[in-house]
Amino acid sequence: MFTKARIRLTILYSLLFLFFFWVFSIGIYYWMNRSIGEGTIVNQVKQQEQQGKNDGEFNDQQAAIVTTAGDIALNQLKIALLVLNGGLLFVIPFGAWVLTEKTLGPLQEIHEQQKQFASDVSHELRTPLSIMKGEIEVALHKTRSLSDYKQTLVSTKEETERLSNLVENLLFLTRAEKGKMQKQFSVVDITDVVGQVISNLHKKAEEKQITMKFTPPENSLVVAGEEYLLRQMIFNIIDNAIKYTNKKGRIAVTISSDKQHAIIKVKDTGLGINKEEQEKIFDRFYRIDASRSGTKGYGLGLSLVKSILDLHKGKIRVTSTIGKGTTFSVFLPLS
Ligand code: ADP
Fold it and tell me: From the CB of 304, is ligand 1 less than 6 Å away?
């Protein structure tokens, strides 16, 4: 689809440019022809002579020389324009191809991403659905005990929760993307947001006996943003820190600032992420080998974090050492 569009657009751009240059060259040639060609230049010199601007006599011999000089100049111009336009026949298609790449390249990238996204979503939806279908079919195959039915319901509920989590995340992602077009920012106190998230996740950390330490900033720091999106962004980072830190680990959440940003640091003593994967973890549906932590997820959490930060003109940095831990640093412009 894009190859055909590329060829068509290259031809169109080439024809447009060639048309422009040919019209320009023909225009120049005719203008010069009217000015110096076919004896016009002699008439002009004679006119100037009559107006007293030229001294001396202008005889027929001189007129012939001037006419020939005019014709030679015109001929030179014709050759120059022909050579230039001939050269452009080779240069323009190349330029048109580069321009086409610049126009269609980003569109193709978006198209590929959307195709990949649709296929990833379908794949992720199919897995829990087929698990549920299989379990229900087994349960219905013959009469079973009450505890067997209960077991089926429990596992179906788990899969439903996973599904609704996925749908929730996708919805957030779409809302964050939509937010890029219709920003409704208000003033948000970042300490409140982080504090709320920590109290929501405290129990989850306790279950793994993880110590969570929170250091708020000395003064209150406010940013312009959508509070629910900022909360979701911080939730995802701290939730990951809990998920990917072993029992009895430590997590430190610190808020500070530089001249332009509120800086939120989430430091854990967890599994760590190697250098190559530090860039990929922000891609949609990217997960580092799920078996290493035994956690279930869809690889959407950090891509959501990235989308929300893009929306707020923020940045995120990761530093990590395998086996020692990871620090995510979020920079949000102060309002
Ligand atoms: P999910 O957690 O659902 O897999 P995310 O997009 O939130 O998806 O994270 C992508 C991957 O990045 C995770 O699969 C995990 O391997 C890695 N990751 C994220 N946060 C951490 C962390 N604090 N420590 C180690 N690995 C992490």
Answer: no
Q: Which of 284, 287, 303 to mutate to test the pocket of ligand 1 (most atoms within 8 A of CB)?
A: 287
pLDDT at 158: 87
Q: Residue 139: enclosing H or E segment and its boundaries?
A: helix 60-141
Pocket flag, ligand 1, residue 325 (CB < 6 Å):
no
Residue 231 parent element (H or E): helix 227-243
Region of 272 on the Ramachandran plot (φ > 0 left; ψ -120 to 50 alpha; else beta): left
**How far is residue 308's CA from residue 329's CA, in Å, rounded to a whole number?**
14
Taking CA atoms only, the protein residue closest to ligand 1 atom 1 is 299
* Closest listed residue to residue 266, CA positions, set 326, 192, 203: 326
What pLDDT score does 96 carry?
95
Supply the DSSP string of 40-67, one letter for each residue. Answer: HHHHHHHHHHHTT-S-S---HHHHHHHH
Q: What's this model's pTM, rounded to 2 decimal places? A: 0.67
